[in-house]
């Protein structure tokens, strides 16, 4: 082996070693960050994790409670996380061959299982009507969801200009764009009794939550998730599904050809007559991709699809971002789709139930989780690619709302 080859191998080895160290450090920082968040929220009155965070969820009962939940709860999973993170600072870290929740063998250095395997008796979740209504009113005043969630002919003017949500550029409300918009909001204020908001977390694998998810009056899903072969865990019903325009670029070659468009239509067929919600006006490139999707769906309407494409209003996304980040001091560049649609659901639905929301690498039984229920990529492998989101902070906020009875978050197996 000549000298140049030896130097190249040495440089490559050093680079890989540095990357591994950096990734582990980021993982540890996020784990400690989540532990600190949960500790702080537990110290400030019931917005951390409580005894409701049990291992296997027993059948919950819906209790109408108009008083504030002042139940004193024993130490919850937060203590387990803090202890595990503290213990993990001692000794060297090692990588282990593990089996994921969907049976795939992977090499992974996840959060220690001690952090998520704390067992506490299950307390029935209590729907606090007063707290839910108070939150709904506050959020509505800040975000104007009733009027701005979907771009309509009532909340924009023909030939006017609007600013892209994340750019300084403006776009025009042309005659064509205006004609594509619904006359009014398709979703009313507290129109539905119950809503399921379904995240794509690997914690849904083997959850058996499909029937419970489908029992809601309205089901919301995020980012065009795969559902075929997973219905036992995630259900079949979809009323509203978000579609990040970048998915069109990566999965369907930006819908450039007829074959790409047909592949997109075939993929979305299992959403049946759902609304496909595109954040078309976040960036300029999103608009072009979203318009292509609208045309493809419209041309196939009544033939291979009955879906309806709708566009999010950029002002609503801006207001929602300010509300969540301002009220809860969430430090992140952009909200996740999950948190954004939780807010929308609170406006549309009397009672909101969450599934598939879990930011940790293992569940409470120590199973290694994949990033999504439909893939084999561990959460740590994608850690560097989701740095613009702060999932631990969002999770702590949602758990706080769960504990107050504002919404229900299911992070265990559902009852059969």
From TrEMBL:
Belongs to the glycosyltransferase 29 family. The keyword Metal-binding does not apply. The gene is ST8SIA1. This is ST8SIA1 protein. GO terms for molecular function: alpha-N-acetylneuraminate alpha-2,8-sialyltransferase activity. One of its GO terms (biological process) is oligosaccharide metabolic process. Signal peptide: none annotated. Residues 54-71 have a biased composition (Basic and acidic residues).
